[in-house]
Amino acid sequence: MSFIEPEASNIIRDLPEALLIINAQGELIYVNRAVETLTGFSETELIGNHVSMLMPPSAHRRLDVLTWLTRWADNPDPSQLRYLNLDGVNKNGTERRYRVRVSSFKSEQSARFLVIIRDVTEEEEASRRLQHARLVSDRILAIGDQGILTINESQTIEYWNKRAEQIFGYREEEILGQNISMLIPEGLSTKHQQQVQQFVDNNIASRLMGERGEIKGVHKDGHIIPLEASITKTQIEDRILLSAQVKDITARKQAEKNLHDSELRFRALFENAFEGMALLSVDGLVIEINKAARELLANDSVFENRYFWDLNWWPSGTPEDIEISKAQLKENIVNVFDRDLVRLRVELSHHTGSRDIDFSLIPVIDEDNKPLYILAEGRDLTALDKS
Amino acid sequence: MPKITYIEHNGTQHTLEVAEGISLMQGAISNMVPGIEGDCGGLCACATCHVYIPSDWQSKCSEAEELENSILDFAYDVTNNSRLACQIEVTAELDGLIVHLPSRQY
Ligand code: FES
Asked: What pTM, to 2 d.p., does this model score?
């Protein structure tokens, strides 16, 4: 490099940055040591060759390196090049990505380009990987059945997924940057603010659904939404982010109510029937027993979880008679699934006198024919007989 | 809101309602359409929001400025239909637009 003083020339040669100089035709006229290290080519292999040896043209891109260098050589603002890396290739054919900076100068009346290249292949790959991992997790969150949102320490919403949009009725662009209080029913918003602050101040990382019970949110159209929420705290440097998963439990609550109503109706029917009824497990233990049946068992106070034949059906019988009756009843119960239906007329020695009972055992099966329950029914015919 | 269909290079379709006034790039990013990167955030400086606009829709899109064309030099597999999605504003006129995405963005 005749145009550079000897010391400066040494410094440039040993510079850790890969530096090369090309002429206006794109021929390499100088490369420093770092270029050799970076590309694997030796100085002699490079000098006199076209710069496209290091940054070859591609059938997929319109870009031509020399035009590119010429265009950017005199640009005062290299920050515009921040996102534009070039495809490179090293001696063993491996593809690389180079960040390239260029300036021009004149030497012996001819234009020269001073080019610095930095290999950013790994850096670029790492940031792509991160970006793509984020895309994948965003897409997972978007299809989840839980609304997901993140607020910062000033309780402003920073993240909002599609499900949250459906639950609360606000689109992402309407809600980002807004205060969380928009989603809390009016009278509850101060309390909610305090709770959030408490969670920020304490040392618990996450609080899961179920630990906090039902909470209430408000939809864009004003209706109140019953919700469950899990919340987690992430501190990044001095920022605290709170993320919540929110589940709309409207449907579940409705289902619970329906179930409760149907249970009430069933109870009303069961408890108030004239017939004595008991629901037994397949091996004969009492699960439920109704009022009419309990009345026949005046000497018993505990019914559930006892064998049906062990209940005190025969309060005034002799011990031998009772044993025989018990054994018969047990035999009928344990074999009921082989018999479809057992129906007999029995006489109970009740404390109000002898009762004439039309007794039946009905096996109950599910749709796969699996035994579920035994229904024991007793109709008191005494009054009927007398009339 | 205008309905826009983004078709990934593998054929996967994303039909989305995109708010007027934002760019085609923003519309894709905020709806998590894979195959668009938008590294520079819409500054017309990265060429990673490259898309193909069908010829019959081109006139409905705002025209490409010189900077866009020069940045497109960096994009992969550029054709006459190539545009940078961050330079196209979504308008009511673009309702029904189909946008094809290239096989890669960098
Ligand atoms: S987003 Fe960078 S050029 Fe369009």
From this structure: 0.70
Is residue B12 within 8 Å of B101, Cβ to Cβ? Answer: no
For residue B60, tell me if it sits in a domain: no
Range of the domain at B48: 10-55+78-96
Share of chain A above pLDDT 90, in %: 65
Please report the pLDDT score of residue A67 as a whole number.
Answer: 87
Q: What is the ipTM of this complex?
A: 0.91
Q: Name the pLDDT band for A280 (thresholds 50, 70, 90).
A: very high
Domain that holds residue A171: 144-248
Evaluate whether A385 touches A356 at the Cβ level (below 8 Å): yes
Residue B11 has pLDDT above 70, yes or no: yes
Give the CATH number, domain containing residue A59: 3.30.450.20
How many separate domains does chain B show? 1
Q: Which residues neighbour A54 within 8 Å (Cβ) at sequence distance 6 or greater? A: A20, A39, A41, A46, A88, A89, A98, A117
Which of B18, B22, B32, B44 is most worth mutating to test chain A (most A CB atoms within 10 A of its CB)?
B32
Q: Which residues does chain B have within 8 Å of residue A173's beta carbon, measured at their own beta carbons? A: 19, 30
Partner A contacted by B30 (CB < 8 A)? yes
- Residue bearing tokens 């439920």: A288
Torsion angle (degrees, nearest 10) of CA A135, A140, A141, A145: 160
φ, ψ at A98 (rounded to 5°): -115, 135
The minimum-distance atom of ligand 1 relative to the CA of B49 is 4
Residue A77: Cβ within 10 Å count: 7
Percent share of chain B, pLDDT over 90: 89
pLDDT at A385: 65
Same-domain pairing of A265 and A379: yes
Whether the CB-CB separation of A342 and A361 falls below 8 Å is answered with yes
A117 and A11 within one domain: yes
Q: Say what the pLDDT of residue A76 is.
A: 64
Q: Which residues of A touch B46 (CB under 8 A)?
A: 83-84
- Number of compact structural domains in chain A: 3
